[in-house]
Amino acid sequence: MSMKKIWNYISNLGIREDDNESARRTIMLNNKLNFVMLVSMVLLLTYVVPSMLLTNKPISYGNLRIAILIGFNFLNLAIAGFGLTMISRLLLVFIPPVLFLIVPTFIGYVEEESYTYYPYILICTSIIPQLLLHPKNERFLFWLSIAYYFVMVLFIDWFMVHFETIQFPIVDRINTFYPFYKIAQIVMFIFINACIYYLRMLSFRFEDELYRKNRELDKQNLELINQKSEIERQKDELVKKETSTWQKLVNIISHEILNSAIPITNLAGMGSQMLEDESGAVLKPAKIDGETIEDIHHGLKIIESRTRALINFVTSTKSLTHIPRPTIRQIRIGELFDRIIILFQPRFKEKGIQFEKHINPPELTVDADMELIENVIINLILNAIEAMEEIPAARLSFVAEKSELNQVHISVTDNGKGISDEVLEHIFLPYYSTKPNNSGIGLSLAQQIMMLHNARLEVTSKPGEGAIFTMIF
Questions:
Q1: Is 218 a member of any domain?
Q2: What pTM does this model have?
Q3: For 152-180, what is each residue's pLDDT tens digit?
Q4: Quick one: which of 23, 14, 5, 25 has its CA closest to 79?
Q5: How far apart are the C-alpha atoms of 281 and 260, rounded to whole Å?
Q6: Could you list the residue range(s) of the whole structural domain that residue 395 is in?
Q7: Residues 86, 14: contact at Cβ < 8 Å?
Q8: Which residue, 50, 44, 47, 51, is CA-closest to 65?
Q9: What digits encode the pLDDT tens for the residues 310-358?
Q10: 159 with 72, same domain?
Q11: Most-buried pick from 76, 112, 265, 313 (CB within 10 A)?
């Protein structure tokens, strides 16, 4: 097994699937500290033992505590491996100073250099609770451990003096400058721990912010997925509607062509039969009576009529695909309304239609092609006049205003018989009409003109309540 695999295996000891990211990092750090301490003690022991054997020095507690710490680290890793990660962390926080410093002092193992490095070992190891305990989630244990190390820094010198077996000269020098000696240790302890605490709190704050942003990002991703699903659904619905529209369009065109083609075929066949004898030979002009000639003439008139109707149908169909490109300029809507009212005023008077116009603001303008937009409004007015044919008090209003979205709305409103939901669904479909002798091209053409202006035509209506056609720019 490679060193990298060993490192990864030890780092992940005791991590459960339900542990969050913060808990995983803390457990991994605990395992790594244990392992680093274990390796350090093993390396130190491999240096100390040969040097003792070479110099014939006896084994002291100073050497024995290295082996004890090695055993402690092994035990702690095993505890973490069994999933007792909290116990493993607490042992690593509280036990090493006891084994390495306090126990040797209590049994009288105090060396002169102990006064130099014991307090600073405690200051350095006080970083361990900062790394392994959460200041917010484990507040009590965190501050207890900081207090534990602070008390040991305060009293470690007293313990060494009290339990030492030999009076070292360094003690007199320390006593001479004791206030400065101890204040320096306290200041160092507070400074190091305060800095680490501040950095950890910053880290937690950034972690919380990152978590919040990740949650927002997940929410946005979910919204995007939902939007994508909705777009796909709308796309499928649009394809279905488009297919349905084309089917209806083909049916209407087929119906219109057959309406002319079938009578023409029938009349042509009948005329041909009238000009043949029983054997199928063509009759001579002298044998054709006047009634037959009259019938053939009548049939030819009908054929001419149906042919003209078919030509008109094709011409109107062609108009849908040959709309001139709009010449856009700024149009005063007041001027547009005045031109149309002048055009229709005799018709309004004849039909007894009351009309009104309202423009807000009065100087409202729109960027459009004057002639094409006139055609749209004329078409809407003609439809409105037909819808109000049997209305005793017919009223027509023209309204132009600016919406909250800064769009220009031009509306033509009538109080006619209204439009049913079924008709509204197909109202802009080419050739669709509920009126006899009507091509059904007008509203479809009006909608296409609006689309060429990057605008749209909308309609709202209920049976018996009139209709409102709104041009939205």
A1: no
A2: 0.49
A3: 888 888 877 777 666 667 777 777 777 88
A4: 14
A5: 28
A6: 329-472
A7: no
A8: 44
A9: 776 666 666 655 677 888 999 999 998 988 888 888 888 888 889 899 9
A10: yes
A11: 76
